[in-house]
Amino acid sequence: MPIFPLTTPSSPPTPTLINFDFLNVPHLLLNVTQSCNGLLLVEGTLDENQSPSTLFVCNPITKRFATITGVPKKSNFFLAYDPLKSLHFKLVSVQSVNRLGWSDATLDWDDYSTHAHKIAIYSSETACWSDTRVCFVVPSTMKMHLGVYCNGSVHWYLKAKESFYFDVENQCLKTYPMPPNIENHEKSHFSESRGRLHMMLLSPQLLFDIYELKEDYSAWSLRFHRLDLSRVHAPLHDLYVLIGNTLIRLFHMLCVAGQEKEQDFMLMLIFHDGTLFSYNVVDNTITELSEFESIIESRVPWFEGYAFRSFEFIQNLSPVGVSTA
After folding, report:
1. Is residue 230 assigned to a domain?
2. 84 with 55: CB under 8 angstroms?
3. Residues 217-243: pLDDT tens digits?
4. Which of 37, 42, 209, 248 has the smallest CB count inside 10 Å?
5. CA distances from 297 to 15, 29, 92 (A)
6. Chain centroid to CA 240: how far?
7. Which Pfam families does UniProt cross-reference here (predicted)?
8. What is the DSSP track for 130-165?
9. CA distance 112 to 228
10. 0.85 exceeded by the pTM?
Protein backbone atom coordinates (compact mmCIF):
# COMPACT_ATOMS: atom_id res chain seq x y z
CA MET A 1 0.00 0.00 0.00
CA PRO A 2 1.68 3.26 -1.13
CA ILE A 3 1.26 6.60 0.67
CA PHE A 4 1.80 9.77 -1.41
CA PRO A 5 2.19 13.31 -0.04
CA LEU A 6 -0.54 15.51 -1.56
CA THR A 7 1.67 18.47 -2.41
CA THR A 8 2.94 20.00 -5.61
CA PRO A 9 6.64 19.09 -5.64
CA SER A 10 9.14 20.02 -8.35
CA SER A 11 9.81 16.32 -8.96
CA PRO A 12 7.65 13.20 -8.52
CA PRO A 13 7.55 12.25 -4.82
CA THR A 14 8.66 8.86 -3.56
CA PRO A 15 5.75 7.00 -1.96
CA THR A 16 5.98 5.45 1.48
CA LEU A 17 5.23 1.75 1.08
CA ILE A 18 3.57 -0.09 3.94
CA ASN A 19 2.39 -3.65 4.37
CA PHE A 20 0.35 -5.43 6.98
CA ASP A 21 2.66 -8.29 7.91
CA PHE A 22 2.56 -7.02 11.49
CA LEU A 23 -1.05 -8.26 11.74
CA ASN A 24 0.34 -11.80 11.43
CA VAL A 25 -2.70 -13.26 9.66
CA PRO A 26 -1.30 -14.90 6.49
CA HIS A 27 -4.46 -17.03 6.18
CA LEU A 28 -6.68 -13.97 5.68
CA LEU A 29 -7.28 -11.76 2.65
CA LEU A 30 -6.89 -8.16 3.81
CA ASN A 31 -8.72 -5.13 2.45
CA VAL A 32 -8.26 -1.54 3.65
CA THR A 33 -11.71 0.04 3.71
CA GLN A 34 -11.26 3.33 5.57
CA SER A 35 -8.78 5.85 6.95
CA CYS A 36 -9.66 8.03 9.92
CA ASN A 37 -7.27 10.47 11.62
CA GLY A 38 -4.22 8.23 11.40
CA LEU A 39 -5.92 4.87 11.87
CA LEU A 40 -6.88 2.36 9.18
CA LEU A 41 -9.80 -0.04 9.16
CA VAL A 42 -8.78 -3.37 7.62
CA GLU A 43 -11.21 -6.20 6.86
CA GLY A 44 -9.98 -9.79 6.95
CA THR A 45 -11.79 -12.53 5.03
CA LEU A 46 -11.10 -16.20 4.40
CA ASP A 47 -12.47 -15.87 0.86
CA GLU A 48 -12.97 -12.82 -1.36
CA ASN A 49 -16.67 -13.67 -1.74
CA GLN A 50 -17.31 -13.86 2.01
CA SER A 51 -18.17 -11.26 4.60
CA PRO A 52 -15.26 -10.23 6.82
CA SER A 53 -14.66 -12.58 9.74
CA THR A 54 -12.26 -10.24 11.53
CA LEU A 55 -11.70 -6.50 11.62
CA PHE A 56 -8.45 -4.75 12.44
CA VAL A 57 -8.01 -1.14 13.45
CA CYS A 58 -4.34 -0.27 13.11
CA ASN A 59 -1.77 2.47 12.95
CA PRO A 60 0.58 1.37 10.13
CA ILE A 61 3.25 3.81 11.32
CA THR A 62 3.56 2.44 14.87
CA LYS A 63 2.37 -1.05 13.82
CA ARG A 64 -0.02 -1.18 16.75
CA PHE A 65 -3.46 -2.67 16.18
CA ALA A 66 -6.70 -3.87 17.72
CA THR A 67 -8.49 -7.04 16.61
CA ILE A 68 -12.30 -7.08 16.54
CA THR A 69 -14.15 -10.38 16.36
CA GLY A 70 -17.85 -11.23 16.61
CA VAL A 71 -18.35 -9.20 13.45
CA PRO A 72 -22.01 -8.77 12.35
CA LYS A 73 -22.75 -10.44 9.01
CA LYS A 74 -23.96 -8.60 5.90
CA SER A 75 -22.67 -5.32 7.27
CA ASN A 76 -20.78 -2.24 6.18
CA PHE A 77 -18.35 -0.84 8.73
CA PHE A 78 -17.21 2.71 9.42
CA LEU A 79 -14.39 3.84 11.68
CA ALA A 80 -15.03 6.79 14.01
CA TYR A 81 -11.95 8.25 15.68
CA ASP A 82 -11.03 11.73 16.87
CA PRO A 83 -7.83 11.81 18.99
CA LEU A 84 -8.61 15.38 20.09
CA LYS A 85 -11.69 14.07 21.94
CA SER A 86 -10.71 10.55 22.98
CA LEU A 87 -7.98 7.97 22.48
CA HIS A 88 -10.69 5.34 22.04
CA PHE A 89 -12.23 4.56 18.67
CA LYS A 90 -15.65 3.31 17.67
CA LEU A 91 -16.85 1.15 14.79
CA VAL A 92 -20.27 1.66 13.25
CA SER A 93 -21.87 -1.46 11.78
CA VAL A 94 -24.72 -0.94 9.29
CA GLN A 95 -26.28 -4.36 8.85
CA SER A 96 -28.82 -5.39 6.21
CA VAL A 97 -31.82 -7.14 7.78
CA ASN A 98 -35.26 -8.30 6.69
CA ARG A 99 -37.72 -5.44 6.95
CA LEU A 100 -40.48 -7.79 8.17
CA GLY A 101 -38.73 -8.03 11.51
CA TRP A 102 -39.05 -4.29 12.13
CA SER A 103 -42.40 -2.61 12.66
CA ASP A 104 -41.10 0.83 13.56
CA ALA A 105 -38.26 2.17 11.42
CA THR A 106 -36.43 5.29 12.58
CA LEU A 107 -36.34 6.52 8.98
CA ASP A 108 -38.40 5.13 6.10
CA TRP A 109 -37.72 6.53 2.62
CA ASP A 110 -38.88 3.62 0.51
CA ASP A 111 -42.26 1.95 0.96
CA TYR A 112 -41.37 -0.79 -1.52
CA SER A 113 -37.97 -1.90 -0.23
CA THR A 114 -37.95 -5.28 1.51
CA HIS A 115 -34.64 -4.65 3.28
CA ALA A 116 -33.93 -2.50 6.28
CA HIS A 117 -30.67 -1.58 7.97
CA LYS A 118 -29.87 -1.60 11.66
CA ILE A 119 -26.92 0.00 13.40
CA ALA A 120 -24.63 -1.38 16.09
CA ILE A 121 -21.54 0.25 17.60
CA TYR A 122 -18.28 -1.28 18.79
CA SER A 123 -16.31 0.69 21.38
CA SER A 124 -12.61 0.08 21.99
CA GLU A 125 -13.16 1.33 25.54
CA THR A 126 -15.53 -1.54 26.41
CA ALA A 127 -14.28 -3.98 23.71
CA CYS A 128 -17.83 -5.04 22.85
CA TRP A 129 -20.68 -4.36 20.43
CA SER A 130 -23.89 -2.60 21.51
CA ASP A 131 -27.22 -2.28 19.70
CA THR A 132 -28.37 1.29 19.04
CA ARG A 133 -31.95 0.29 18.19
CA VAL A 134 -31.68 2.54 15.13
CA CYS A 135 -33.33 0.94 12.10
CA PHE A 136 -34.00 2.60 8.75
CA VAL A 137 -35.26 1.84 5.25
CA VAL A 138 -33.78 3.50 2.17
CA PRO A 139 -34.03 2.92 -1.60
CA SER A 140 -32.45 -0.36 -2.67
CA THR A 141 -30.28 1.57 -5.15
CA MET A 142 -28.54 3.42 -2.33
CA LYS A 143 -24.90 2.36 -1.94
CA MET A 144 -24.55 1.97 1.80
CA HIS A 145 -20.87 0.99 1.59
CA LEU A 146 -20.02 4.46 0.27
CA GLY A 147 -20.77 6.21 3.56
CA VAL A 148 -18.25 8.87 4.61
CA TYR A 149 -17.23 9.63 8.19
CA CYS A 150 -16.76 13.30 9.03
CA ASN A 151 -16.96 15.29 12.29
CA GLY A 152 -18.49 12.54 14.40
CA SER A 153 -21.04 11.28 11.88
CA VAL A 154 -21.32 8.82 8.99
CA HIS A 155 -22.85 10.47 5.90
CA TRP A 156 -24.54 8.98 2.84
CA TYR A 157 -25.61 10.67 -0.39
CA LEU A 158 -28.79 10.36 -2.44
CA LYS A 159 -29.85 11.77 -5.79
CA ALA A 160 -32.55 13.74 -4.03
CA LYS A 161 -33.07 17.06 -2.26
CA GLU A 162 -31.77 15.64 1.01
CA SER A 163 -29.98 12.64 2.43
CA PHE A 164 -29.11 11.56 5.98
CA TYR A 165 -26.26 10.89 8.36
CA PHE A 166 -25.76 8.94 11.59
CA ASP A 167 -24.58 10.89 14.63
CA VAL A 168 -22.29 8.39 16.40
CA GLU A 169 -22.18 10.09 19.81
CA ASN A 170 -25.94 10.69 20.09
CA GLN A 171 -26.83 7.48 18.20
CA CYS A 172 -29.47 9.05 15.99
CA LEU A 173 -30.20 9.75 12.32
CA LYS A 174 -30.40 13.29 10.97
CA THR A 175 -31.07 14.72 7.52
CA TYR A 176 -29.00 17.22 5.54
CA PRO A 177 -29.40 18.80 2.08
CA MET A 178 -27.83 17.54 -1.12
CA PRO A 179 -26.19 19.89 -3.66
CA PRO A 180 -28.65 21.65 -6.01
CA ASN A 181 -29.66 19.81 -9.19
CA ILE A 182 -27.86 16.65 -8.11
CA GLU A 183 -30.52 14.65 -9.99
CA ASN A 184 -29.15 16.01 -13.29
CA HIS A 185 -25.54 15.08 -12.59
CA GLU A 186 -23.49 11.95 -12.32
CA LYS A 187 -22.05 11.70 -8.82
CA SER A 188 -18.33 11.60 -9.44
CA HIS A 189 -16.79 11.69 -5.96
CA PHE A 190 -17.98 12.00 -2.35
CA SER A 191 -15.35 12.28 0.38
CA GLU A 192 -14.01 14.04 3.47
CA SER A 193 -10.89 16.16 3.63
CA ARG A 194 -9.61 18.26 6.54
CA GLY A 195 -12.89 17.99 8.40
CA ARG A 196 -15.12 19.04 5.48
CA LEU A 197 -17.36 17.05 3.17
CA HIS A 198 -16.83 17.44 -0.59
CA MET A 199 -18.88 16.27 -3.53
CA MET A 200 -17.72 16.39 -7.14
CA LEU A 201 -20.49 16.22 -9.74
CA LEU A 202 -20.10 15.52 -13.45
CA SER A 203 -22.50 17.20 -15.88
CA PRO A 204 -23.67 15.68 -19.20
CA GLN A 205 -21.23 18.12 -20.86
CA LEU A 206 -18.34 16.43 -18.95
CA LEU A 207 -17.78 19.48 -16.78
CA PHE A 208 -17.15 19.15 -13.06
CA ASP A 209 -18.62 21.10 -10.14
CA ILE A 210 -16.94 20.77 -6.73
CA TYR A 211 -19.12 21.46 -3.69
CA GLU A 212 -18.20 21.78 -0.01
CA LEU A 213 -20.75 21.33 2.79
CA LYS A 214 -21.06 24.33 5.10
CA GLU A 215 -20.11 23.81 8.73
CA ASP A 216 -23.71 24.31 9.91
CA TYR A 217 -25.00 21.77 7.32
CA SER A 218 -27.43 24.36 5.95
CA ALA A 219 -26.25 24.13 2.32
CA TRP A 220 -23.36 23.32 -0.02
CA SER A 221 -20.93 25.98 -1.23
CA LEU A 222 -19.85 25.79 -4.88
CA ARG A 223 -16.03 25.91 -4.74
CA PHE A 224 -15.33 25.30 -8.45
CA HIS A 225 -17.84 25.58 -11.30
CA ARG A 226 -17.75 23.88 -14.71
CA LEU A 227 -14.21 22.61 -14.26
CA ASP A 228 -13.02 21.38 -17.67
CA LEU A 229 -10.39 18.68 -17.19
CA SER A 230 -10.15 18.17 -20.96
CA ARG A 231 -7.96 21.30 -20.98
CA VAL A 232 -5.56 19.78 -18.49
CA HIS A 233 -2.37 18.59 -20.14
CA ALA A 234 -1.22 15.32 -18.61
CA PRO A 235 2.11 14.33 -20.21
CA LEU A 236 1.64 11.57 -22.81
CA HIS A 237 -1.96 11.00 -21.69
CA ASP A 238 -5.35 11.76 -23.18
CA LEU A 239 -8.14 12.36 -20.69
CA TYR A 240 -10.93 11.32 -23.08
CA VAL A 241 -11.39 9.13 -26.14
CA LEU A 242 -14.24 9.34 -28.66
CA ILE A 243 -15.92 5.97 -29.27
CA GLY A 244 -18.69 6.42 -31.84
CA ASN A 245 -20.61 9.44 -30.63
CA THR A 246 -19.68 8.90 -27.00
CA LEU A 247 -16.81 10.62 -25.20
CA ILE A 248 -15.25 8.20 -22.71
CA ARG A 249 -13.13 9.24 -19.73
CA LEU A 250 -9.73 7.56 -19.58
CA PHE A 251 -9.14 8.46 -15.95
CA HIS A 252 -10.72 7.63 -12.61
CA MET A 253 -11.11 10.18 -9.81
CA LEU A 254 -9.47 8.86 -6.65
CA CYS A 255 -9.36 11.78 -4.28
CA VAL A 256 -10.59 15.34 -3.75
CA ALA A 257 -8.47 16.97 -1.06
CA GLY A 258 -8.34 20.36 0.57
CA GLN A 259 -4.90 21.77 1.34
CA GLU A 260 -3.33 23.76 4.17
CA LYS A 261 -4.07 26.95 2.26
CA GLU A 262 -7.82 27.47 2.29
CA GLN A 263 -7.95 28.40 -1.40
CA ASP A 264 -6.01 25.34 -2.64
CA PHE A 265 -7.62 22.14 -3.88
CA MET A 266 -6.00 18.95 -5.10
CA LEU A 267 -7.41 16.12 -7.20
CA MET A 268 -5.84 12.69 -7.61
CA LEU A 269 -6.42 10.93 -10.95
CA ILE A 270 -5.43 7.47 -12.13
CA PHE A 271 -5.31 6.73 -15.86
CA HIS A 272 -6.15 3.61 -17.84
CA ASP A 273 -2.48 2.61 -18.01
CA GLY A 274 -2.04 2.85 -14.24
CA THR A 275 -0.30 6.24 -14.11
CA LEU A 276 -1.18 8.36 -11.08
CA PHE A 277 -1.35 12.17 -11.20
CA SER A 278 -2.11 14.93 -8.72
CA TYR A 279 -3.78 18.05 -10.13
CA ASN A 280 -3.90 21.42 -8.37
CA VAL A 281 -7.21 23.00 -9.38
CA VAL A 282 -6.13 26.52 -8.44
CA ASP A 283 -2.83 26.90 -10.29
CA ASN A 284 -3.65 24.32 -12.99
CA THR A 285 -0.51 22.24 -12.38
CA ILE A 286 -0.37 18.48 -12.77
CA THR A 287 2.29 16.17 -11.32
CA GLU A 288 2.96 12.53 -12.10
CA LEU A 289 3.18 10.55 -8.86
CA SER A 290 3.84 6.95 -9.91
CA GLU A 291 2.94 4.09 -12.22
CA PHE A 292 1.08 0.94 -11.22
CA GLU A 293 1.38 -1.06 -14.44
CA SER A 294 2.82 -4.08 -12.68
CA ILE A 295 -0.11 -4.07 -10.28
CA ILE A 296 -3.09 -3.51 -12.55
CA GLU A 297 -1.73 -4.99 -15.78
CA SER A 298 -2.86 -1.88 -17.69
CA ARG A 299 -6.53 -2.74 -17.31
CA VAL A 300 -9.11 0.02 -17.65
CA PRO A 301 -10.81 -0.06 -14.22
CA TRP A 302 -14.30 1.07 -15.16
CA PHE A 303 -14.44 -1.15 -18.27
CA GLU A 304 -13.28 -4.40 -16.69
CA GLY A 305 -14.57 -4.04 -13.17
CA TYR A 306 -11.20 -3.33 -11.54
CA ALA A 307 -11.80 -0.93 -8.67
CA PHE A 308 -9.42 1.61 -7.16
CA ARG A 309 -9.84 3.23 -3.76
CA SER A 310 -7.84 5.95 -2.09
CA PHE A 311 -7.92 7.44 1.38
CA GLU A 312 -6.62 10.61 2.96
CA PHE A 313 -4.11 9.44 5.57
CA ILE A 314 -2.59 11.62 8.28
CA GLN A 315 0.57 10.08 9.72
CA ASN A 316 0.69 10.27 13.50
CA LEU A 317 1.51 8.22 16.59
CA SER A 318 -2.08 7.53 17.63
CA PRO A 319 -2.06 4.66 20.16
CA VAL A 320 -4.31 1.70 19.47
CA GLY A 321 -4.51 -1.92 20.57
CA VAL A 322 -1.36 -3.94 21.07
CA SER A 323 2.20 -3.53 19.88
CA THR A 324 3.93 -6.01 17.58
CA ALA A 325 7.29 -5.48 19.26
Report:
1. no
2. no
3. 999 999 988 888 776 666 656 777 777
4. 248
5. 20, 20, 35
6. 25
7. b-prop_At3g26010-like
8. EEEEEEEE--TT--GGG-EEETTEEE---SSSEEEE
9. 39
10. no
